[in-house]
Write a structure and sequence with these properties.
Layout lengths: L4 E2 L2 H5 L21 E4 L18 E5 L9 E7 L10 H13 L3 E6 L10 H15 L1 H4 L1 E11 L1 H11 L22 E4 L12 H8 L6 H5 L13 E6 L8 H12 L4 E6 L16 H11 L6
Parallel strand pairs: 4-5, 4-6, 6-7, 7-8, 8-9
Antiparallel strand pairs: 1-9, 2-3, 3-5
Helix pairs in contact: 3-5
């Protein structure tokens, strides 16, 4: 067992709340410019204006293909407490890593507070998955191997689409809405999971739900309480010394997956704090661990 990784659930649950420092290495950006695409071509639902921040989009980074076989893809949900988006550290750098291992990396620029609150973020996240499947033939992506990876509040969003999904509407006038939005795999990195105390990250909760929201939403949006029998297999990573988002969030989601007999893998590093992105120092091994997990679940190129 690595001395850098703590598997003890008790240690994770014992971590305390406070503000933690974060650090991450900064790998080079993908060399190719991404394809940028709006999630809705017309009539963005629940839009409050027509500015760029009112128009959610995806940035599609495709790797150099070594064969004609369709490749898996991962949608990337950057963190930022639902109030801003860490587009480089938890977006472009992650797309680069995914491209390096032969996967498509698709950054989702979802709407955030202010002024947007739930369910807008979920609608954007689901629409992004449908959009990738709708364009899979054009982009050389396997529509049956579309996963999600999220960081911090983006990890909560990735867990939301892992627990709130549908098969699409075959009769929808909008062809994108005919595709399902269930991810085939999920990677959650120092995720927000619970909206209830004592594990809740209050900043993310207030931005997502609003400070005067119905408390019933706290339970409904605590995704460890919403695991379905077909919630996708999930890889989770966090740091024991994360004092921004309690690592007990990761533990709670893992235990809920295990209770539902869903394949799950949890790594809690001794050090790393919050916001380490692709990883550095003590938590640097997580991308290699995730790659091995992806291989075991058939989510790497053949």
């Amino acid at each position: 067992m690595s001395t850098n990784i703590v598997y003890s659930l008790c240690i994770a649950l014992a971590a305390a709340f406070s503000i933690g420092a974060c650090g991450a290495q900064t790998p080079a950006s993908p060399s190719a410019k991404p394809l940028v695409m709006s999630l809705w071509q017309n009539n963005v639902p629940l839009a409050k204006g027509t500015k760029p921040e009112d128009n959610p989009e995806i940035q599609v980074f495709l790797p150099e293909k070594k064969s004609d076989a369709a490749i898996p893809a991962f949608l990337i949900y950057p963190g930022g407490a639902y109030g801003w988006l860490s587009m480089d550290n938890e977006g472009v750098h992650i797309a680069k890593w995914l491209n390096d291992i032969g996967l498509a990396g698709i950054i989702v620029k979802y709407r955030i507070a202010p002024p947007y609150h739930y369910p807008v973020e979920l609608l954007d996240a689901q629409r992004a998955i449908r959009t990738v499947r709708a364009n899979s033939a054009k982009w050389g992506i396997d529509p049956q191997h579309v996963g999600v990876i999220g960081f911090s509040a983006g990890g909560h969003l990735a867990s939301l689409v892992s627990t709130f999904f549908d098969d699409g509407n075959p009769d929808a006038a909008d062809t994108v809405d005919r595709f399902g939005c269930r991810p085939d795999a999920a990677i959650l990195v120092y995720p927000v999971i619970s909206m209830t105390d004592p594990l809740a990250h209050t900043g993310s909760r207030d931005n997502l739900i609003g400070p005067n929201a119905d408390p019933k939403l706290y339970d409904q949006l605590s995704t460890d309480k919403e695991i379905k029998s077909n919630t996708p297999p999930t890889f989770i990573v966090a740091a024991n010394d994360d004092t921004t988002v309690h690592p007990g969030n990761s533990v709670a989601y893992y235990l809920a997956l295990k209770k539902a007999n869903i394949s799950a893998e949890l790594h809690i590093f001794d050090f790393g704090g919050h916001g380490f992105g692709i990883g550095s120092g003590a938590n640097a091994p997580w991308p290699d661990l995730a790659k091995a997990w992806l291989g075991r679940h058939g989510m790497l190129p053949k």
